[in-house]
Amino acid sequence: MLQIVVAQLLLPAKNGAGSYDNVGPQTFIVQIRHADTHQPLDGIAVGDIGPKYGYASMDNGYMLFNHCRVPKSAMLSRYAEVSDETGAMNRHGHPAVVYGSLTFVRGQIIMHARLVLARAVTVAVRYCAIRRQFRDRDSTNDGDEEMKVMDYPTVQIRILPLLATTFALHYTGEMMHTLYHKSRETIEKGDFGPLAELHSASSGLKSLCTMLTADGIETCRRAMGGHGFGGGSGLVGINADYLSKPTVEGDNWMITQQVAAHLIKKMTAAVKNPSAAPQDPTDELFQYYLNNRDHRISQNVVCAGTISDQSIVDVFQWRAADLSYRAYQARVVEKKPWTRLMIQLHTLSRAYSEQILVTTFHNSLNETASSLSGPTPDVLRTCFRLYSLYTLDAFASSFTMTIAAAEDSVHALPDAILDLMMELRPHAVKLVDAWSIPDWLLESALGRSDGKVYEELFDMAHRRNPLNKTTFNPDYRSEEIVKGSGDKGDAILAKL
Amino acid sequence: MLQIVVAQLLLPAKNGAGSYDNVGPQTFIVQIRHADTHQPLDGIAVGDIGPKYGYASMDNGYMLFNHCRVPKSAMLSRYAEVSDETGAMNRHGHPAVVYGSLTFVRGQIIMHARLVLARAVTVAVRYCAIRRQFRDRDSTNDGDEEMKVMDYPTVQIRILPLLATTFALHYTGEMMHTLYHKSRETIEKGDFGPLAELHSASSGLKSLCTMLTADGIETCRRAMGGHGFGGGSGLVGINADYLSKPTVEGDNWMITQQVAAHLIKKMTAAVKNPSAAPQDPTDELFQYYLNNRDHRISQNVVCAGTISDQSIVDVFQWRAADLSYRAYQARVVEKKPWTRLMIQLHTLSRAYSEQILVTTFHNSLNETASSLSGPTPDVLRTCFRLYSLYTLDAFASSFTMTIAAAEDSVHALPDAILDLMMELRPHAVKLVDAWSIPDWLLESALGRSDGKVYEELFDMAHRRNPLNKTTFNPDYRSEEIVKGSGDKGDAILAKL
Fold first, then answer.
1. Which among A51, A410, A467 has CB closest to B50?
2. ipTM
3. What topology is assigned to A2-92 in CATH?
């Protein structure tokens, strides 16, 4: 009956009768339906927009107003109000305060993304650890069983890097949560300094993490072959619902501009004053970059089969800094049009966000090591390396172009990734079990925690599928719609 | 009632009473339901498997046999039969003949893929040419309109390379069709020589093209923002249905092994006898590669802003040949385990198939030029360049590692791609119109050929959405379910 309506507020212009100044979007409480009949009031058209891809639990609507009068008292005036005396707009507080909750929501989206991805990965890992197909091509023993598909590198390369990604997202989500609450205190005291950095990081990560998860669900589904396409996978609904996320709360391609604008601003400041006291890790990184860019030597991430964790962090950070510098150079020095740079800026945001994921994951290895027992710290390190090297390999030319990583070590990545996956393989089922996602939430025959994949698939199809309770008559000329019903199908027709 | 059943045929082993030899899968005509009651016969469990992701028009079923007797006369014996006298298996004709129709179906899948992708691209191009959002960030004129989103490079980079891809797929689909019918004649004469090459090409292309289309639909949908998630996009159903394609008719990751095995065989032969008369373009390419690999100079695809079409074809072919040689080296010379090489072999298949798309597209430019008028040949050349350079950029390190393309020209790709997209932009709507996909097939408010996007969206939501015909009572304590119905909602309850 009542709704919060966001609308552009036009106020009479001071200089010129009949013209208006737009003072931006404001919020109003408006009655839209009649209290008794629940019909829309005069001048209001409102309704449900109809089917969407998924996310049916959200009843998105449309609303049009035609000469609809709203009293001034309906305007929510915590941060802005129109003066009764002068008719002017008075704003209270810092305008940036709205970014606080935006940042909070985007931070939560990271934690949500990691759990949704964990659901998809749980299903894929469990099923592929049960499913067998084909004997090893080099097998010479007729008695050899068919291989578990999880032992094929072509299945591993699709699922195991995503398994590692769930943990990368987890530690960054936790870090952002802590950072938000720490910054919140500073902001409450009126110091808006940390907000820009927080907003930039949360925007870049929202874009990257929701994309990784949206794409990852489908990658997991396809890795499961034909049964992945079946309703027993449990991934059909989760995919349809999740596909809203790359668009809502700031479109994934749009908001990366905010990240790039922030980084260009920071780089401009760093170039201007390379010895100012750094306010945050980005300042530190940019100062380090500017001090070293003239004598940079590209790093060997993998050297003679040995992986250097410190070099991994270094190349991700260096690449982000170098791409920031290129963006600064193009926009500030060469004054290129913003629109022409948009793809470059999107790439920058992604590189910067990947650097956050890698750095935070690496930090967490040290922070969590003492509280974890058994092989867990080593397994998490393998996850860290797999996520990092897989990402490095996917964007290899970006790392060599920026003189972050050495060409030779980039060529060694595919072999290193194969070895990491073989290391991780024996722990894969335990790692997804660690996410503790209950069977009722997975709602998946393939992802059952007890591994009874085929029993459940048969039960779903043969016993619980209502289609199989009715034997339809294939002879369309007959009046007996359901075979043996004796009622000419009246019971079914009544439902139509 | 009757079904063709594919089952493993076991025949009594000659050496040993009670044991059986498996002579492979054979086909049988089996009665599975009673002619009158349509109930499954004794020992047969059969039914519908239940919901799938999409493709609801296909009623996939399951079937189990328990001690079900089938007479020998039920076996389809065109190519293999069991002798009445000896009980032995007699095979007729060439066993490879089954690959003929497999190849034909995979060829058709390419043409289908290009049309499905064209549907998605048509919707995206038309909508993004209507939709406006935000003024140019560098605009200084208050009177400037908001930009059409199709003019943002971040929208172009997602849609225009896919528009170019539809034509790349088209010309290769046509070429495969011609090649199939030409090879068919040779095969009918008993010469199975061309079949291996045809089967390899059709497998690699099936994998590549269905992946490009499946991913491309979703890329187009996301490029349309919030309305892309809405039911008015027309891409929801097409996506759900098409997602079966990367799996059916040979899983996209599995069948690339067949391509790689063929290429390794060809390279082995070429190394053994580098001056044998070439039987097909692959032989020619491999001989050229082996003759030149010692003094290869990487090519400049883009040099001082000028694109060399001949170099584009060269680098795609060289990369495919070099990756073939690496696979030969790893498998034949170093005798590495097949399973360990699987990812490398998948990459090889993709590179080889991309080479087919690029080469065929380039050939078609010359073949079609004389029959096309106006700017069309130039526009198609832009499509050729955009598809090729976009693909090159996405796998840049693979081209530099194989000494196919020069590092410097790879770094020039993003700028060259931006320019190509600006060239193509004015022709984008006409190019999708050229696919002539009727509105009733698109079934999309966003993709209407007359551009009446918002009129149609409003009509769908406000006038045709049945949810809005009923005003539900938000007061759950009331017995009046539908406001103003006067029947306490009986009409609705009767449907349940």
1. A467
2. 0.94
3. Butyryl-CoA Dehydrogenase, subunit A; domain 2 (2.40.110)
